[in-house]
Amino acid sequence: MTNETPSPTKLFILLTLVLFSLMPVIELHAEGDLPNITSLQLSVGEDGNCTLKVDSRDTEEAHKRDEKVKGEEIKLEAFGDAKVNKLDDGRLNVIYDFATIKDATQLFPSFLNDQAKKQLGQSISIDEDEGVLVLTPANNKRVNLPLPRMLRPPFTVRIDLLGHSEGMFQLTASPGGNLIATSLHGSKTPEKSASVGDIRVISRSANSKQLNSLLKVNHQKAELRDYHFKVDPEAVKNNAMLGIGYFGDLPIAVKKIEITAKIPPSFGIALKQVGTRIIAQQVVDGSAAQKAGIRKNDVIVAIGDKKAKSAKDALNSFSECELGKEVVLKVQRYGKDRAIKVIPQ
User: Fold this and answer.
1) What is the pLDDT of residues 99-128, one digit of tens each?
2) Residue 81: partners with Cβ closer than 8 Å, 6 or more residues away
3) CA distance 132 to 306
């Protein structure tokens, strides 16, 4: 947690509470003609160009992968039982396949406290018989799941569903506190202005309450479509947090979650600067730093061969480290110099 985005818990609560209030798209569907969304994929480029791929074909066809992921398969503790490949461009391809993952808590972000994880565990589970992640709405008919890692563009996230034709399904990204929110509307969507099959994308800047409509279309039954829109390139420069949410009466099932992105290394250290000293203000329990022996109030002197001249400089040095590759942190504790080996996750 070398935080470039402040208070990720508050950011996720804020972005998942957004209810869309755009003008309706008038579209009528016969009872047996409702679009059943089986897969969606959001791609966000460094230049702000975005593509939303939506599939309402049957699951067998929609869940096919065009080709095998090219890259080196690696094992990183932070991703649990997910399959991880390091691509030639340095990005990671991470696939959470719930036919093989048995523990839903592997998806819980480390920044959540124990109470938040316990509460989330009441709504998130894995059905081993079906091989799916199950999101069960709480009493308010809402369930939200922040995905476990921050990431940077260019990134792609793909969600394979057993089907969605009721309620409202959301996929959100919050780079640097900015909001990009995608919503799929079914027959029982809570959005009064939305029609069955509506797909909407909105944005909101970190310092504004104004919602901007980026996309508003109506998706039909049994079709695969790409929808294109653009966001401000400045809005996607920072680390982004992803989340999925659902509003409805019945549980919804997720077959796979696939993420391809630059994923910054996580040390699990929050820093503060006091004069010229860079101090570990907090060390997250279970983090790479805590496991290596870094303690609260340790003074960070250097990250590898780069001296920590300021908190910002130290954060930049942390972010340049390679995920899963050992780095030596030089610290001072009680006036004594120490060299501690850490493997960021």
Assistant:
1) 999 999 999 987 788 898 999 999 999 999
2) 100, 101, 102, 103, 106
3) 45
Place of tokens 């997250």: 284
The whole model's pTM is what? 0.84
| Among 134, 97, 127, CA closest to 256 | 97
- Domains of the chain and any CATH numbers: 8-262 (2.60.120), 269-342 (2.30.42.10)
**Cα separation values, 212 from 107, 158, 194, 256, Å:** 30, 23, 16, 30
Query: Following DSSP, what letter does each residue of 22-74 receive, concatenated?
Result: PPPPP----GGG-----EEEEEE-TTSEEEEEEE-S-HHHHT--SSPPPSEEE
Token pair listed for 294: 């870094």
Residue with tokens 């109506």: 218
d(CA 108, CA 115): 12
Q: CB atoms < 10 A from the CB of 327, how many?
A: 22
Tokens of 65: 């992968």
* 3-state class (DSSP) for residue 186: coil
pLDDT at 40: 96
Distance (Å, rounded) from C-alpha 333 to C-alpha 316? Answer: 23
| Cα 148 from Cα 150, distance rounded (Å) | 7
For tokens 């050992």, the residue is: 326
Tokens representing 207 are: 């310092």
Structure-token match 């959005």, residue found: 191
- Pick from 168, 165, 169: which is nearest to 221 by CA? 165
Residue 1 half-sphere exposure toward CB, CA atoms < 13 A: 23
What pLDDT is attached to residue 32?
53
